[in-house]
Amino acid sequence: MKKRVMVLAAVISGALAVSGCTTNPYTGEREAGSSGIGAGIGSLVGAGVGALSSSKKDRGKGALIGAAAGAALGGGVGYYMDVQEAKLRDKMQGTGVSVTRNGDNIVLNMPNNVTFDSNQANLKPAGANTLTGVAMVLKEYPKTAVNVLGYTDSTGGSDLNMRLSQQRADSVASALITQGVAANRIQTRGMGPANPIASNDTAEGKAQNRRVEITLTPIQ
Question: Where does the sequence pass through the membrane (predicted)?
Fold first, then answer.
């Protein structure tokens, strides 16, 4: 028992020594700061605890399990969202959907040319396929709330635009639910022409404003 305590102490000392900078195993990037430090310490301490709590034969396996659990716990919310963001960026490559990080939130901007025809709320095949990739990641990381906002350009009356934007948000939510994302994680809202990201004075600007945004927020 005394020997195991000494080993654990050595593991913790090693964790503190290397905690200044760690490598995120999912992105391959060197990380400094609380998220990377926490994950590094958690991983090393978890490995030590896993090894010490396992039988001699299974000690290597116990160390690996402990390292994975410790990294997730040590990294906290930031680490959880980092990994989710990296996987979403991978899934969204070549789809036309942008992935933006805003603090601990992740925002997916789905432009109209990917998701919907003009004045329509039925998803295009390309949009449905894209949401399959989004759903795969969301199911893997269930500790995030999913807020779906629908937008239109400024053409047409207010009532029409509010209704159309809500229908588009609902269509995206329905596609995610059909793919297995829990409905109680998802909220939808039609924003109409609010919060334009481009000028409504040009056809190109209007096309950019006709969009759906999915914001992923960590559930505390």
Answer: 33-52, 64-81
